[in-house]
Design a protein that fits this description.
59% helix, 85 residues, mainly alpha
Length: 85
């Protein structure tokens, strides 16, 4: 196995939005009977984000996620009415 590592830097808002998207995707598309290498990698990414996102167990998690999306939409200059992926 290669020891080369890749490090990616996200803001808390980016990490929260990415975590939620990956968690939703994994819930919908994981195949427990025939797992793929991509599913393992997504799972590893999800677990890494889970350790880093500081609001996962907040009683305001849903609000925190919506607010993070809104801040990122404004930061990236996206339409506020754009649906989540």
């Amino acid at each position: 196995m290669s020891e080369d590592r890749v490090w990616i830097d996200f803001s808390q808002d980016e990490a929260l939005v990415l975590f939620e998207w990956i968690a939703d995707f994994n819930e919908l598309y994981d195949d427990d009977e025939h797992p793929t290498v991509e599913e393992f990698v997504r799972g590893k990414l999800e677990a890494g984000l889970q350790r880093q996102v500081n609001v996962l167990f907040s009683p305001r998690y849903g609000d925190e996620h919506r607010e993070a999306r809104a801040r990122l939409q404004a930061e990236y200059g996206l339409d506020e009415d754009q649906p989540s992926a």
